[in-house]
Amino acid sequence: MAEDLTVIAGSRQEQYLSLIPQIRALLEGEEDLVANLANTAAALKEQFGWFWVGFYLVRRDELVLGPFQGPVACTRIRKGRGVCGSSWAQEKTLIVPDVEAFPGHIACSSLSKSEIVVPVIRHGEVVAVLDVDSEMPDHFGPTDQQYLEEIVSLITF
Questions:
Q1: H/E/C letters for each residue in the chain?
Q2: Domain 12-153: which topology?
Q3: CA 50 to CA 136: how far, in whole Å?
Q4: 10-residue block means of pLDDT along the chain (157 residues)?
Q5: pTM, full prediction
Q6: How far apart are CA 114 and CA 105, in angstroms?
Q7: What is the pLDDT of residue 1?
């Protein structure tokens, strides 16, 4: 297991390409889900400086707040509600350039302006979502989707 994180500057792609092997090393040999989710959220927050990075875990009929980095957050989200609940229901990554324009957006913080939510799918079922918020509008795109989907695939559930 790695114990240090090397943060680099560069294009978004270059940053992900540097970060992914480091996340892989953080997860290697560690079987505890909470530890792995916490380190993944911390590594993403440290590398990119996003406003909020965290996981919500599927617990019966709702998402329950898991490990995260950033200000306090909504604790429970129903399936189909907000960006996280919609990503869960649709079983796909959602990129929202303007959260205020998203129908039913749940405003955990008025400082959040854009968001990407990546479902964590195991054995054909969503078991969690990775939620990332930015204080800047239109902050996320296809590069983030590609690499965040790769990162969540590394986590063993």
A1: CCCCCCCCCCCHHHHHHHHHHHHHHHHCCCCCHHHHHHHHHHHHHHHHCCCEEEEEEEECCEEEEEEEECCCCCCEEECCCHHHHHHHHHCCCEEECCHHHCCCCCCCCCCCCEEEEEEEEECCEEEEEEEEEECCCCCCCHHHHHHHHHHHHCCCC
A2: Beta-Lactamase (3.30.450)
A3: 9
A4: 82 97 95 97 97 97 97 94 96 95 75 94 96 96 98 95
A5: 0.94
A6: 11
A7: 56
Domain ranges of the chain: 12-153
Distance from chain centroid for Cα 25: 18
Amino acid at 147: Y
